[in-house]
Hints:
The protein is of the alpha+beta class and 418 residues long. The chain has helices at residues 2-20, 24-30, 47-75, 182-192, and strands at residues 81-84, 89-91, 96-103, 108-116, 122-126, 128-129, 134-139, 149-157, 162-166, 173-178, 198-209, 231-242, 248-261, 264-265, 268-269, 277-290, 293-303, 308-319, 325-333, 337-346, 354-361, 375-386, 389-400, 408-417. Residues 22-55 and 61-75 have low confidence and may be disordered.
Amino acid sequence: MTILTSIDRLKLVFLLMVLAGTPAWAQSSSDPSPPQDTAEPITSDDPSEESDTEEDDDNEGKEEAASDDAKDNASEVIVPKFLHVPPISAQAGEPLVLKGVLVGHWRVERIFAEVHSGDGSKLEVNFVRAREKGVIATIPGEWVERGGFAYTVRSIDKNNVTRDHFASQENLHSVSMVGFSKAASERRQLKRFNNHRSRFTLRGNYTAYGRRFQDPDSLGGDFPKTDAGSDNLWLSQLEYLYRPLNFLHDFRFGIGVMRGAWPKVGGAPIHAEDAPGVNYGYGEINLEFHRWFSAGGRLILGANAIGFTMGAAGIARIGDLAGTHASAEIETIGNVGSRTDLRFTWTTVPKIPMALGIEFTNWPLPSAGAYAPEAANLYYDIAYELGAATVGLRLGNSKRVQSLDGGYQGGLSLSYGL
């Protein structure tokens, strides 16, 4: 009974298993994918070979990408670039430094500033390396002139291709000037003198005084009187002038002859000496402290009947030396006398300069230490410019102290500029 009961139970369990589904052993034997620990490797049993293969694949990919980039760069043209802050003004006469940064400098054979002046001339100034990428170019001071200049920045690359980096020949960048340069000032002044730096001048003057009493203390009556025109003076002079036209405005040197005759009474001179005067040479410089103020000095060396003599002179001017100005001059020569000259010159009429002046003098002295009455000479100068030559004329009135009537004076001058 017991055995039969056990068999019935086994049948029931088997039936339940069939109804529940496939048994566990049946699933395991029918699976087509074996477990991972029993599967064979793809390439090799050595794991290091598998790792090397993966790295080789990565390197090959990188090399292919780099090769593609190199091909792209080879086909791309790198254009050099120039970065620059242009000046708008410059100090006249001073060198001007242009600064910039050059990108792609290894492709540039030469980079330069092309400078154009107002007179149509042209100058090329090369840029040089100043820093790792910085470059500078210096425009000489003589090109930085009044009136301004203009420039453009250009380059020539390794393939001999010329490029405009800043401005262009058709549209230049202009730079204005501040102040006057030395060269511009000289040209400006030289133009006022008709572009003549040198000048030769030959002049001659004659002065004759009126009659006076033989005795200076006489007040009238029947005292003897001098002959009209017997008291006279003549002077001739040759001069050369050169104008540097800077602080030393001009210098000059010359030679001269001066002779005088003292008044006579009844054909006999008052003094025993005949024809007093002097033969001399001189040198002079004039300094321009300002366009409207200048001063100069003169050294005189000479000889006369008394012996060797020397003298000096000083002159000051207010106004434009080439135009309207006033001047005062004092001159003295040993054993000859002294003079003071006050003059006003004007150039309001084109090509006809004129001057009005007065001269106070006691020369020529009859002898060393002798008395000579003062004289006043009022004169008018007028000249006419004929190209490089200038012809001048002097007319005036002269009178000694205690003269009974007036005298006269006249002169001629000829100047030639170079």
